[in-house]
Amino acid sequence: MKLRVGIVGFGQMGQAIAQVSAVAGHSLLIYDTNAEALEQGLESIDTNLEKLRSLGKVHDTEGMNALLNLQMVTDIADLKDCDLAIEAVVENYQVKTELLKRLSHINQTGIIVTNTSSLSSNRLAESVLNPKRFMGLHFMNPVSTIPLVEVVKSKTTTAETTNIVLQFCQSLNKTVVQTKDQPGFIVNRLLLPMINQAIHALEDELASAHDIDVAMRLGANWPIGPLALADLIGLDTCLAILENLATEGKSLTFPPSNLLKEKVAKQKLGKKTKAGFFTY
Ligand code: NAD
Questions:
Q1: Does the predicted model carry a pTM greater than 0.85?
Q2: Theoretical Cys-Cys bridge with 32: which of 10, 58, 79, 96, CB 3.0 to 4.6 Å?
């Protein structure tokens, strides 16, 4: 099954989803409001594919064909014939609903999925023209190495839509878990409160950032410490998820720490800005 896939939002997740989809042989049309993101994203996919090819993780032909499968567009209207459009813009309800509304008017035949980390699929479905062809598809970062995706049906998603999305996941060799539409789904409902607690611990001067991460790597067998993981996710995204968990989920987590808010206010967003809890 080869699909024409549209990606809207070519930040770290959009790029990574585009990369694995292109390697799997799907053809990609990619749109972002930021022209620089389009240019940088393509360069970083090229570099990643080269690395994967040298490690033997992607065959030479797969890597070369993948690049041919990627096409940048500067007009979102070019996504009108995509079989599947993947929304991966910032974790902001208003930005997502405006975009999804527009996209669903442009593309009236394909399926639209959102890569939201924490927002309700049912609420987002209200903004699309045909909610039967809409659902959540939550990839994990880094997409090329993490085998899991969370599939989140809304009340209106049809079985036909779900089946096509599941086949797409299978084509990417992803393991799927289906979750109800509750704040943070499975992974972020459990993970983000722990990351938040690590930031609170740093704020309370319990230990250094380095030692908090070493403690969780060596003491709890985490592959990466919680503060390094927050930097990888993006501190703006962590803050947005925690705020969504706090407002939509009520008792699911403590409020986001002041230290996290300060970092975001200073645009120290983690790896993507080369500074967060650590520097890169
Ligand atoms: P990011 O900040 O790296 O990228 C967001 C991109 O969206 C930017 O390139 C920006 O220019 C673009 N954008 C913003 N508004 C737009 C619009 N109206 N139209 C088109 N493009 C627009 O963010 P990210 O980390 O890639 O996260 C994207 C989504 O994926 C969020 O919903 C996030 O919660 C989710 N997600 C993130 C992670 C993670 O670890 N970072 C993991 C899973 C899911």
A1: yes
A2: 10
Residue 265 neighbours by CB under 8 Å, 6+ apart? none
Give the type of residue at 220: A
Dist CA 74 CA 250 (whole Å): 40
pLDDT in tens, 102-135: 999 999 999 999 999 999 999 999 999 999 999 9
- Class of residue 251 by CB neighbours under 10 A (exposed 0-12, middle 13-18, buried 19+): exposed
CB 143 within 8 A of CB 134: no
Annotation says 122 is catalytic = no
- State which ligand 1 atom lies nearest to the alpha carbon of 240: 34
Nearest ligand 1 atom to the CA of 99 is 18
How does DSSP assign 24-72, residue by residue? TT-EEEEE-S-HHHHHHHHHHHHHHHHHHHHTTSS-HHHHHHHHHTEEE
